[in-house]
Amino acid sequence: MKKISLIFLLTLPWACSAAGIQINGVRTWQAPDNTRVVFDISSKSADYKLFRLANPPRLVIDFKNTRLTGKVLKPADSDVILKNIRSAARPNNGLRVVLDLHDQTKFKSFLLKPYKQYGHRLVVDLLHGESLQTNHQMVPKVAKNRPLNTTPKQAVKARSQPRVAKARDLVIAIDAGHGGEDPGAHGPGGTNEKDVVFAIAKKLAALIEKEKGMRPLMIRDGDYYLSLRQRTQKARDNRADMFISIHADAFRDKRVYGTSVYILSENGATSEAARWLAEKENASDLIGGVSLDDKDNMLARVLLDLSQTATKQASYEAGRELLQELRPLGKLHKKEVQQAAFAVLKSPDIPSVLVETAFISNPSEEKKLRSNKHQTVLARALLKGVREYFIKNAPPGTLYAMKSREHVISSGDTLSEIAQRYHVSIASIRSENKLSGDNVRVGQVLKIPAFGDS
Ligand SMILES: [Zn+2]
Prior knowledge:
This protein starts with a helix and ends in a 6-residue tail after the last strand. It is 32% helix and 27% strand. The chain has helices spanning 2-18, 152-160, 193-210, 228-237, 266-279, 297-326, 363-370, 372-393, 399-402, 415-421, 426-432; strands at 21-30, 34-41, 48-53, 58-63, 66-72, 82-90, 94-101, 105-112, 121-131, 170-176, 214-218, 242-249, 260-264, 286-287, 290-291, 338-340, 352-359, 405-408, 445-448. It has 3 domains: 19-131, Immunoglobulin-like (Sandwich); 166-393, Aminopeptidase, CATH 3.40.630; 404-453, LysM domain (Membrane-bound Lytic Murein Transglycosylase D, Chain A), CATH 3.10.350.10. Residues 1-18 and 134-165 have low confidence and may be disordered. With 454 residues, it is α/β, with parallel strands linked by helices. It is elongated and about 95 Å long. The structure holds zinc ion (ZN).
């Protein structure tokens, strides 16, 4: 009896290895701050060890009980950290994968659960600019464009002091949804959401580039994944004045079609406020130019509420302008601005909107989304909406705020309502147009003074 159980124990590991893990493919994605290497694995767990080797710099991944059955895609020539990927079988059903590097670097590895067309994955992120030789110290992101001897707090004070500055451009953050490992929704013809929304985003950026007083900020400018937090963070780091996230919708019923525009819902805003307050101790982030980290909870809560309320109102107005311009392109899916708890809309101080341009699951809308012409039409409509919003709401100090604006009186318009809409005083409109009373007539063209003049 004893002998039999011993044999059984000895053979058990062999039974396991026969069922071993397969790697069905290896691909890479280059983002601005990391290179992501993704292994498609046949099991929800993998037995592996990661370690560095020097001369030349390499990162080695030793898998136990693993076979490579799929293709290993070469990294891009432009990759700043990853040179090549090699693999070789090892004794006892092992597999060694070697990442040849330009330089030793910090790395992270983690497992990803199945999502859409992907199964289980092992991810290895090689962090750019984290070279181990240079004893590199992490510099907080907010401190990027500032002399290194200023602390974030000093810089905040400097910023909140009045200063005579040259009028600046509005920064419009354009967020093409998904990317890299995350393809987004699929069309029946095989179109990936991440590709069409990126094409539209690029066209919008090109238009904004040409617009006097505006500057585009592409949140992702290639086919790689950014977390939703990284997206809002990039907008904050660059002091964006507006955040537009571009997506395409999908539904199981292929007949559903049309455009919708979303802003953050009340629930989303409340949970986000809780997160900001929870993190304020170590946050040097700003709410409308005010740092939360030195405020007590009550005051921080009030400041946050004020900022969120103003931002929500601004987001809603921006959303309405966008819908207005998108309306003529085809039918809207939702006629009013919608609200949802999209994480990417959660900046408490940047007006943020998410545009579901069309239903990629609808065959004819999928075709439109792929067409160069329709992408341009969409981008133009979005530009118009952004322009309309800022004509009425440009922040002081921006070139846009100083643009002379005109308002054509339509029936029902009153001076006080017009003044409110453009955020200027009634008196300033009167003096700009040499009006003595409040009388205006339909068709009359009023000059709207710049914001600083009121
Ligand atoms: Zn999407």
